[in-house]
Amino acid sequence: MTAVPTTNDPRPPLLLLPGTACDARVFAPLIDRLGDYPVLIGDMGAATTMPDLAEAVLAAAPPFFLLAGFSLGGICALEMVARAPQRIGGLALIDATARPDPPANAAVRRKSVADAREKGMDGFILDAWPRLVAAGNVDNAGLRDTIVAMARDCGPDRLAEQAEVAIHRVDSRPRLGAIAQPTLVLAGAEEQVCPLEAQHEIAAGIAGAQLHLIADAGHFAPLENPEAMALHLRRWLNTLS
Predict the structure, then answer these.
(1) What angle do CA 137, 4, 122 make, to 5 degrees?
(2) What is the pTM of this model?
(3) Minimal CA–CA distance to 32: which of 223, 211, 185?
(4) Domain-located, residue 123
(5) What are the backbone angles phi and psi of residue 116, rounded to the nearest 5°?
(6) Mean pLDDT of 48-63
(7) Rounded-to-integer distance, Cα 146 and Cα 130, Å
(8) Domain count, the chain
């Protein structure tokens, strides 16, 4: 658990969970726009099933917090809120899904890990690049370099763990109706990894959930259009603190 330095603050901290092959850099532009709100970054490693990862993050988290997860981090957030709803004051799901991993995906994920071990982590991102960002961002070299750098630092061992976590997750859709926390669902309007149908599915399943699609963004909406993302997150935080 990494803390962004803050003063002693009575507000519940916002725990941010990065996605596959990501780290705190995926949230950096958002954090810059959240002012002085206290923020923590969760460690999305050292587990090979989603239940074990959720328990590890919960064990390191403060007694009460707000929770926001991107992609795999959002899937983990759904597992956490099912396990410890009394500790979580609000939920934000960013380019995530409540659906289980299709059985055929296991072989695809493990093949990607094997390729990353053999050829390096760059290919893990570059092979999927047109699906990861909005059409207008495909030629954004700075954005691409940031995402590739995170993948390199993640490395194939952690990628292998996260692949198994993604494979070994449950279908969270039947549990959506039990979520009572104020919930924000955010996704790039050009999302291709966690389809827009899945975003509408989450919002429809959680009473009172707010869904906002982020213009000029695909799966990496927190980096593609952080201004719009931060606008919705600040409004959400203001209702909770």
Answers:
(1) 35
(2) 0.96
(3) 223
(4) no
(5) -65, -35
(6) 98
(7) 15
(8) 1
